[in-house]
Amino acid sequence: MIFVRRINIVKYLRSCSKIKNPHHKRLRSRIDMDLKSREDPVVFKLDTSEFQNIFNQEVIELKKIFDKYNYEIRVAGGAVRDLLLGQQPKDLDFATTATPQEMKEMFTAENVRMINMAGEKHGTVTPRINDKENFEVTTLRIDMVTDGRHAKVEFTKDWKLDANRRDLTINSMFLGFDGLVYDYFYGYDDLQKRRIAFVGDADVRIKEDYLRIMRYFRFYGRIAESVNNHDQHTLDVIKQNADGLANVSGERIWMELKKTLQGNFTGDLLKKMLEVNIGQYIGLPNPNIEELDKLLKRSKHLYLHPMSYLAALLNNIDDATLLHARLKFSNYDRDMTYFIIENRDRDDGSAPRPLLPYEKIVLNTKIKQQDAYDYVLEVLKYRGDEKLLEDFKKWVIPTFPVNGKILKENGYMPGKVYSHIIYKLKDTWIDSEYQLGVDDLVKLIPSIVDKYKSK
Length: 455
What we know:
CATH architecture of the largest domain: 2-Layer Sandwich
Distance between the termini: 31 Å
Largest sheet: 9 strands, mixed
Helix content: 40-55%
CATH class of the largest domain: Alpha Beta
C-alpha cells in the first residue's frame, strides 16, 4: 500500500509540472506603461494615531540617514493599505530611489549593519537600525523579463513605474513620512469600495507571476465586504491562467492559501477557487464539494482551523498524502488533517460517557499532548458537536499519578512488561474517571503482570 501511494504521489507531481511553455520568457508590455493613472498621485494627507505610531526611534533614524544622503524613501505596499483601513501594520516595508549599491555605501559610511544580502539582486537591502530592528528597503524597479514566477529587474527613480509593476491596486500605493498618500492607479478608490483589482491588465499581471492568482483570493477574503462581489472578467482571466500555478512551489502556494483560509468567506472562496480550475494545480484534483458544503452548513461559525476546510475536500488519507506532497505542510498541519479524516465519521454511541473516547486519545497519545488536545478540539468543531465541544473545553487534563519511580520502587524495571503495565493502569484510571490513586493502582499491578505472562 505504501509503495502504491508513493507511485501515485510521483505521478501526481509529474502531472503538476506539465504546463504550457514552462521556460517561456515574456517582455513587459508597453500597454501596461500607458495605463490610466492620476495626474496628481497625492490623494490626501494621512494623520491618524496608527500612522503616528509607526514612528519609533528606529524608523526616525532610518529616515534621517536617507535624508542626509538626499535619497527619497517612502512606506510601501501592505503597510499603506493597512493604515488607510485604520489598522496598525504588522510590518513596515520601504521603497527608495537609492540603488542597492548606493544604500550599501550609505549604510557602511553610517556604521549600520546589513543582513540577508540575498535580496540585493532584486533591489532589497536590509539594514539593522540601532542594532535593534531590521527594515527591508527596496529600490524602485521595473520587471523587464518574467517567467511566471521570477523577474529580471531594472532599477528606476520613477515611483509610478514601480507602482505599475505591483500586483493589486490596493498594494500599489506609497506613503510619505509627512503623511502624503501617493496613489497612481486608483488603489485608494478600490480600497474604499472594498474592490480587489489587478494593476492594469489582469492577464499581464498574472502571467508575470502566477502566484498572484492565490494573492487575489487572499486579499479578497481580507478586504471585500460581500461574499460574491468578484469581477467576472477577472475570474475568467484567472481560469485561463490557472495551469501556471503548476510551476509555482507548493510552499509559496500554501503560504497564500493558508492566509485565505484564515480570512473571511473561507468556504465560499475555496469553492470559487475550485470553480476557476485551480484545484488540480494545487493538489486537489478530485475535491469533495459535497462534504465541504456539509461542513460549512454545520460548523463554519465555529472558527475552523484551515486544515478542516481542506480535510473536507479530501476523500481519504491517500488524498491527504498527495496534498501534503504538493503543498508541504508542517508536521502539525499534516497530522491534524490525517486525524480529522480518520475521526470525522467515528461512532462513539457505545461509550459509557461521551467524552471518554476523546479523553483517552489525549491521555494515551504518543505525540505532544497539546497537539492531541488541539486535534480533538478541531474534529469536534468539524463534526459540529457543540455540546461535546464545550464540555471538552472545560475538561482539565489530569496528571496520571503513576510514574517510573513508583514502578521501580515496586520492583518493576523498564522492559516489555513495563509499558504494558503503564498502559493498563492508565486505562483503568481513566475508566474510573480519575478517582483511583497511587495505592489503588499499585495494587492492580500483580494481576496485570500475571495476565501478560499467561498470554
